[in-house]
Amino acid sequence: MSGRKQFDVDAALDQAMRVFWQRGYAEASLDALASATGLGRGSLYGAFGNKQALFRRCLDRYTDLYGARFEQALAAHPGDPVRAVGAFFEVILARIADPSVPGGCLIAQSAAQAPALDGDDSAKVRGLLDAQRRRVRAALEGAPADASTLDALASYVVAVNQSLAVLSRAGASDAELRSVAGLACATVDDTLSRPASGPGARG
Questions:
Q1: Residue 35 or residue 196, greater confidence
Q2: DNA-binding residues per UniProt (predicted)?
């Protein structure tokens, strides 16, 4: 036996992720991160590198935990993009309502603090938002609308998702959040129900 204290890397990342999720990058001090993970500063640096490296690992961990759920929801209703978007929002609302995790969304929290991030970290957060938009866009593929409309709808759905996170942090009730999500689904349905027109329309 080496005598070294062993620890669960994923469990430590989960605890660090909660600190970034709750406080944001700027307010997530090394002392708070060390306390949450149960690691001293030296062990924290030894295991994960500096604060920026730990933050990136936490973003990856968050994506691993929730990205697959988003993909499954969006893929659950092939050929029915409105139901797919509704399932996507259900996953989001379930996460928001989960009392075991902080309110809101780590990506939304990080995007709001983009000025406090360095260029690489800010680009990573933006990349995660873009990946989410691509997932939604894939679920809309084949709908009777031109490509520019589908692109705009995908961006709209992601924007509503981020808004739900912000509203939940501000104390909005589940009923209020569900009302917003329901209106967003109705907007998607209404937009896709309009006759396609213009040079990019599908013939």
A1: 35
A2: 29-48
Q: Are 52 and 74 in contact (CB under 8 A)?
A: no
Contact 21, 113 (CB under 8 A): no
Q: Percentage of the chain surpassing pLDDT 70?
A: 93
Extents of the domains making up the chain: 55-193
Closest-CA residue to 23 (of 95, 106, 99): 106
pLDDT tens per residue, range 59-79: 999 999 888 899 999 999 999
Superfamily covering domain 55-193 = Tetracycline Repressor, domain 2 (1.10.357.10)
Task: Write out the two tokens for 139.
Answer: 């679920």
pLDDT of 115 above 90 = no
Contact of 93 with 168, CB cutoff 8 Å: no
Any long-range contacts for 93-98 (C-beta under 8 Å, 24+ apart)?
A: 93/164, 93/174, 93/177, 93/178, 93/181, 95/66, 96/164, 96/165, 96/168, 96/174, 96/177, 97/174
